[in-house]
Amino acid sequence: MAPQKPTRDGSTGVQSLQRAFELLEHLADTGGEASLSELASTSGLPMPTIHRLIRTLVALGYVRQNTNRRYALGARLIRLGENASLQFGSWARPLLTELVDEVGETANLAVLERDEVVYVAQVPSRHSMRMFTEVGRRLLPHGTGVGKAILSVLPPEQTRALLARTGMPAYTEHTFTEPDTLLRHLATVAKQGYALDESEQELGVRCVAVPIEGAPTPAAVSVSGPEGRLTKEAVSRIAPVVQRIARNLSAQLGTDAATA
């Protein structure tokens, strides 16, 4: 194989590709928009390198320049992200089915995408009264079990910035609407290893959700059902099962990465 030719800043094509993806991830971490100086600060790359890579990404449609001269994630990434989420959901479906078979309630898989949780897979329960979300539905994370599970493993400053961007509207009287209160609650979620949605999104609905370590994007798996069936006593039985499925999903992700 011919050696990689260095670019004008001395990096190879492979290095440039890696750095371009790192810049996209830095943009995502800032909520999707940043200046060149902010990217230089977070990435540690020289400004000429950032400028060259950003120019290329803009030309390809993966980054756009706003009128305020800041850079944001481009529309061309939407198709890639949506297809990746669907693939992720299809791949996880057998384990979601196993979860439903064991606990008898609806299982969901959701990912964090552009400050929202989007449901990418669902296996419904066999009960006549079924669930209240559907694949493709988008919700703000502060009012959902899967959202709180995901937020519980993010750095607090990142969570606080996300909440500042989205606001915290009340879906029900039980929804968290104050950042400090939610952050204290998320510390408890992180300690116990699962989140509960106690009628915070829809009245009469309880949800047990667990974050998935090592997912390509922040993700969580959950079990949801009416409070009459998914009682607090049932939660103590169901939560360890959801945690086991989350670990199995994480382990499969690690296996796939190792064999790629």
Question: Which labels suit this protein?
Answer:
single chain; 260 residues; alpha+beta; Arc Repressor Mutant, subunit A; Beta-Lactamase; 2 domains; six-stranded antiparallel beta sheet; three-stranded antiparallel beta sheet; 8 helices; globular; disordered N terminus
Description:
- Residues 76-255 form the IclR-ED domain.
- May be an activator protein for the gylABX operon.
- One of its GO terms (biological process) is negative regulation of DNA-templated transcription.
- InterPro entries: GAF-like_dom_sf, HTH_MetabolicPath_Reg, Tscrpt_reg_IclR_C, Tscrpt_reg_IclR_N, WH-like_DNA-bd_sf, WH_DNA-bd_sf.
- Helix content is 49%, strand content 17%.
- α1 (13-29) crosses α3 and α4 packs across α8 (232-259).
- It folds into two domains: 13-74, Winged helix-like DNA-binding domain superfamily/Winged helix DNA-binding domain (Arc Repressor Mutant, subunit A); 78-259, Beta-Lactamase (2-Layer Sandwich), CATH 3.30.450.
- A six-stranded antiparallel beta sheet has the order 6-5-4-9-8-7, sandwiched between helices.
- It is of the alpha+beta class and 260 residues long.
- β7 (195-198) and β8 form a beta hairpin.
- The protein is built from eight helices and nine strands.
- The two termini are 20 Å apart.
Strand and helix map with partners:
Elements (H helix, E strand, L loop, with lengths): L12 H17 L3 E2 L1 H8 L3 H14 L2 E3 L5 E3 L2 H28 L2 E8 L2 E8 L14 E2 L5 H7 L4 H11 L12 H14 L2 E4 L6 E7 L7 E8 L5 H28 L1
Antiparallel strand pairs: 1-3, 2-3, 4-5, 4-9, 5-6, 7-8, 8-9
Keywords: DNA-binding, Glycerol metabolism, Transcription, Transcription regulation
Pfam families: HTH_IclR (PF09339), IclR_C (PF01614)
InterPro entries: GAF-like_dom_sf, HTH_MetabolicPath_Reg, Tscrpt_reg_IclR_C, Tscrpt_reg_IclR_N, WH-like_DNA-bd_sf, WH_DNA-bd_sf
